UniProtKB/TrEMBL annotation:
Assembly and oligomerization: Heterotetramer of two alpha and two beta subunits.
InterPro entries tied to this protein: ATP-grasp, ATP-grasp_succ-CoA_synth-type, ATP_grasp_subdomain_1, Succ-CoA_synthase_bsu_CS, SUCC_ACL_C, Succ_CoA_ligase-like_bsu, Succinyl-CoA_synth-like
Binding of ATP, residues: K46, G53, R54, G55, E109, A112, E117
SUPFAM superfamilies named in the record: Glutathione synthetase ATP-binding domain-like, Succinyl-CoA synthetase domains
Taxonomic superkingdom: Bacteria
GO molecular function: ATP binding; magnesium ion binding; malate-CoA ligase activity; succinate-CoA ligase (ADP-forming) activity; succinate-CoA ligase (GDP-forming) activity
Binding site residues for Mg(2+): N209, D223
Annotated positions binding substrate: N274, G331, I332, M333
The entry's keywords: ATP-binding, Ligase, Magnesium, Metal-binding, Nucleotide-binding, Tricarboxylic acid cycle
Gene of this entry: sucC_3
Name of the protein in its database record: Succinate--CoA ligase [ADP-forming] subunit beta
Length: 397
């Protein structure tokens, strides 16, 4: 689960991390009082959306040369004008796609006297199986560009779970940033604090870009992006309360209600598959034959008829879907249950696009009989390769 920057800073501040004072604005009625409560002399107005690249983004409703989604203001009047111009507008960044995201809340915080900008993230490193810090002196930039152009400036420090972030680990991170004096003292304490926050709150990603050193040689969290492990949210009701459904795809929200693993994509072939690996292979082979998947959808190993019906409804609710491929290899999941769910869903919502069904495994004969006896206009497939070719051909005509 992703949260907004101001929420991430609230979490980090509760652990003792140094963050600037700020206020959240969700309506123009709040704006004047909120901006007036800030001392200045610099106010930073930040769009709060679940996407990066806000500073370089463009508002669809504003002229092309208008300032982006993060604006530095040098008076309360300028800050208020920026709030009025940004709130409710659609911000398009390199991560939102062309559709953009509507800015429903802003965060106004005190400006900082920046001397250096650093990059820091904590994540689970799949290569080592450990939680690792990723540190670079090139903060404020896209870390992907740094990795491609100057990989020697990126340092990875793996942490042993049994000992946590030790003084020696924190010193290595400080060395990577070339911190000295007061900044080194504050930094080594902060790195241990951030690791504590990461593990205590079951985060899957903590990214601070930039982490700054001020001209007074103080260390401060200037931006923060945090994602949490959905499977651990039951342990953190305070974190679950941060969820902002306006930032999520409506189909993904509906899928979560039925415990379906669903991710919306940009293609036009809807996929219903059991098993994450098979779902990935299904999407790959659709791309191999020249089309694009509209979603990732794993119904799981023990889905009920009702769950399959819900999954089919979610797929057909996507207006971009021009065809549907059901690819089931029955082990724990029975083919007849899938077939019953598909038939029930089609009878309820109708079928306006081509449907290819490939069934194999447990109760496959019963599943095929249910499909064949349903009277539905279904294209049967013998294997995955055959199914992919048939759905791509049906969609492309």
């Amino acid at each position: 689960m992703n949260i907004h920057e101001h929420q991430a800073k609230e979490v980090l501040k509760s652990f003792g991390a140094p963050v600037a004072n700020g206020v959240v604005i969700t309506s123009l009625e709040q704006a004047e009082a909120a901006v007036g409560a800030m001392k200045g002399p610099v106010w930073v107005v930040k769009s709060q959306i679940h996407a990066g690249g806000r500073g370089k983004g463009k508002f669809r409703e504003l002229p092309g040369d208008a300032k982006g989604g993060v604006r530095v203001s040098f008076s309360a009047e300028e800050a208020l004008a920026n709030v009025k111009e940004m709130l409710g507008k659609t911000l398009v960044t390199n991560q939102t796609g062309p559709a953009g995201k509507q800015v429903n809340r802003l965060y106004v915080e005190d400006g900082a006297d920046i001397d250096r900008e650093l990059y820091l993230s904590i994540l689970v490193d799949r290569e080592t199986g450990k939680t690792s810090f990723v540190a670079s002196t090139e903060g404020g930039m896209d870390i992907e560009a740094v990795a491609e152009e100057t990989p020697e400036l990126i340092h990875t420090i793996a942490i042993n779970a049994s000992s946590g972030c030790t003084d020696a680990d924190a010193a290595r991170i400080a060395d990577a940033y070339k911190l000295a004096g007061k900044a080194r003292e504050q930094g080594t304490a902060l790195f241990k604090t951030l690791y504590d926050a990461f593990t205590t709150k079951d985060m899957s990603l903590l990214e601070i870009n930039p982490l700054i050193v001020t001209k007074a040689n103080d260390v401060q969290v200037l931006d923060a992006k945090v994602s949490f492990d959905n499977n651990a949210l039951f342990r953190h009701p305070d974190v679950a309360a941060y969820r902002d459904e306006t930032e999520e795809d409506a189909k993904e929200i509906e899928a979560s209600k039925h415990d379906l693993a669903y991710i919306a994509l940009d293609g036009d072939i809807g996929c219903m598959v059991n098993g994450a690996g098979l779902a990935m292979a299904t999407m790959d082979i659709i791309k191999l034959y020249g089309a694009e998947p509209a979603n990732f959808l794993d119904v799981g190993g023990g889905a009920s008829k009702e769950k399959v019906t819900a999954a089919f409804k979610i797929i057909t609710s996507d207006p971009n879907v021009k065809g549907i491929l059901v690819n089931i290899f029955g082990g724990i999941m029975r083919c007849d249950v899938i077939a019953e769910g598909v038939v029930a869903a089609v009878k309820e919502v109708g079928l306006k696009v081509p449907l290819v069904v490939r069934l194999e495994g447990t109760k496959v004969a019963e599943g095929k009989k249910i499909i064949n006896d349903s009277g539905l206009n279904v294209i049967a497939a013998d294997d995955l390769d055959d199914a992919a070719q048939k759905i791509v051909k049906a969609v492309k005509g």
